[in-house]
Fold this protein.
Amino acid sequence: QVHLVESGGGLVQAGGSLRLSCAASVNIFSITVMGWYRQAPGKQREFVALITNIGTTNYADSVKGRFTISRDNAKNTVDLQMNSLKREDTGVYYCSALTGPGYWGQGTQVTVSS
């Protein structure tokens, strides 16, 4: 079992920044891929970013150049730095651990106002 807890969401104006953090209940070094997803109201959950245990990253086209994913295997955390936020970034952001059956956190709300 892997328990994931997200934090750092909130309300921010367009153009602003937020940093999300995901704390895992286990040592994440052995988890090859950790990721962030989001779900906007009325839409399906979508991929945002992922990072492997050797630091390889991948981003959705919509966030490239604005978001940065990082992981600290010693602290068992995965962060998502979000800059130049847009209204369309609004949604619930979920942390995921792509191991076994796959694990998800409970999500943290990000609201970007104009």
About this structure: The two ends are 40 Å apart (CA to CA). The chain has a mean pLDDT of 96. The chain has no helices and eleven strands. The first strand starts at residue 4 and ends at 7.
